[in-house]
Amino acid sequence: MPEHPLRAALRKLWGDRGSRAALIAVALLILVALTAPLLSRLGGWSPTAFDSSAIDPYLGGMPRGPLGGVSAEHWLGVEPATGRDLFARVVHGARVSLLIAFAATAIVVVAGTATGIAAGYFGGRVDTVLSRLMDLTMSFPSLIFMIAMMSVAQDVNRVVLMTAVIGVFGWPGIARVVRGETLSLRHREYVEAARVAGSGSWRILTREILPNISGPVIAYTTLLIPGMISTEAALSFLGVGVRPPTSSWGQMIAEAVTYYETDPMYFLVPSTFLFVAVLAFTVLGDALRDILDPRGGRS
User: Fold this and answer.
1) Under a CB-based contact definition with an 8 Å cutoff, are residues 246 and 88 in contact?
2) For the segment 180-224, what is each residue's pLDDT rounded down to a tens digit?
3) What predicted TM-score, i.e. pTM, was given to this entire model?
């Protein structure tokens, strides 16, 4: 009995040392994001709680003790001036950053796959209209537009707005990939056989074409996530992302720039989490691409 493709892919991932490390890192990051409230309670501090005893008012609010105030009470130190616990803030930042990244990626994948498969399968005028829509969306200076939108919209849920704005500008890339794959599949023998047998377009798209492009879509999806994490961090760093007291890695890095010489731990902690997340998802995405979409992998 042939091995299930998903099980075979997981076996190949686990067999490679780098991919295995990336898979473990991704699983741990997701676990941290899901259990952030429990972890912060375990550490004894909420992300918004101030601890005036952890900072020295005579030194401009700098943390007491070495390494930015690292101690048995504050595992990763504290923020200068406020004394907020860095461990609590960074695990809650993981929750916000990964939530936005995963939600925006879901929007991109659903919209891009639907548009690409429709353009590639129906062709003609449908393909022309949808392809021009892809070109139009890709021609926008997306980062500038995101900054403008986030700056103008004041009294809205920032997490929902960031997810929507990032998702709106991210779908054309995967739509082009899916369109190309669909164009190569729509005249295959099994598609023609299904058409001759009387299957409608919806059945052909969902039963014949979509399963055969799932490999490239899954690989592309995994490669999208680190870009989404970086985009969220960039917007928060620029001050147009999530707002205090909600914490995110980009916001923490922006606040830490002022203190990177006097309290480098404040800068290093969120930067390390951001670096590990982007690296782990990138390595995992490259490995999945090589396994699920060999034609798109490295030669």
Assistant:
1) no
2) 989 888 888 888 888 888 888 888 888 888 888 888 888 888 888
3) 0.85
pLDDT tens by residue, 2-51: 555 567 777 787 888 888 899 999 999 999 999 999 999 998 898 988 98
**CB contact at 8 A, 46 and 245:** no
Over residues 59-91, the pLDDT tens digits come to: 888 898 888 888 888 889 899 988 899 999 999
Polymer length in residues for the chain: 299
Q: Which residue has the tokens 């299904």?
A: 194
End-to-end C-alpha distance for the chain, whole angstroms: 30
Dig out the tokens for 20 from the structure: 């295995």
Angle, helices 210-237 vs 142-152, to 10°: value is 60
Q: Which of 169, 174, 180 is nearest to 220 (CA)?
A: 174
The one-letter amino acid code at 292 reads: L
The C-alpha angle with vertex 116 and arms to 123 and 112, in degrees rounded to 5, equals 155
Give CA–CA dist 285/290, Å, rounded: 9
Separation of alpha carbons 79 and 263, rounded Å: 9
Joined together, the tokens standing for residue 128 give 């022309």
Quote the crossing angle between the two packed helices 124-139 and 86-122, to the nearest 10°.
Answer: 150
Lookup: tokens for 221: 């999806």
d(C-alpha 286, C-alpha 161), whole Å: 29
Rounded CA-CA distance 178/109 in Å is: 10
Going by C-alpha positions, the residue among 175, 159, 185, 42 that lies closest to residue 101 is: 159
Tell me what percent of the chain is helix, strand and coil, each rounded to the nearest 5. Answer: 75, 0, 25
In the block, residue with structure tokens 């190309």? 180
Q: Which residues contact 132 (CB under 8 A, 6 or more apart)?
A: none
- Measured CA to CA, the distance from residue 22 to residue 237 in angstroms comes to 26
